[in-house]
Design a protein that fits this description.
Layout lengths: L32 H13 L5 H8 L3 H13 L6 H5 L8 H46 L7
Helix pairs in contact: 1-3
Length: 146
């Protein structure tokens, strides 16, 4: 005989998805330009054996350092807020998105038309060749059998 205890599933609130409560969604880390510059400088000045130690200590990947070094060299990684704002992508308006879509469609249709014209040209030449072969076959006399 089973006796109901407070630890039974009946006492827990029901989860609508039927499974365990999922973990909260992780948030993306954001690094300031000052931090990026400091990490790039520290990484570049570290001896070869110590570079991995820096990455592990900070929880970074080598790809972070590579990306930040490229940004610094391009001048996109500056301490002023105006410089960091210029790195962000600009959202395209609905008209720009539609225009790009129509241009891609036009290019695809132009390529399709070119293929179709080439196929028709080949078909025309094949038809002319077959007509010429047919005419020459009609003019030839069949061999005589004795």
């Amino acid at each position: 005989m089973h006796v109901s205890t407070p630890s039974d599933d009946q006492s827990r609130p029901a989860d609508p998805s039927g499974g365990a409560d999922p973990a909260p969604r992780p948030t993306r880390r954001v690094f300031s330009p000052e931090y990026k510059l400091a990490m790039v400088a520290e990484y570049e000045n570290a001896p070869n054996g110590e570079k991995g130690v820096i990455l592990r200590r900070e929880g970074l990947y080598s790809s972070h350092i590579i990306e930040w070094t490229r940004a610094r060299d391009a001048g996109a990684l500056t301490n002023d807020p105006a410089g960091s704002a210029s790195v962000k992508r600009v959202k395209k308006s609905a008209e720009q998105v539609e225009l790009e879509k129509l241009r891609r469609e036009k290019d695809n249709l132009a390529a399709e038309l070119k293929k179709t014209r080439m196929a028709l040209d080949i078909m025309g030449k094949a038809h002319a060749l077959l007509a010429e072969i047919s005419e020459s076959a009609e003019n030839d006399e069949p061999p005589k059998t004795s």
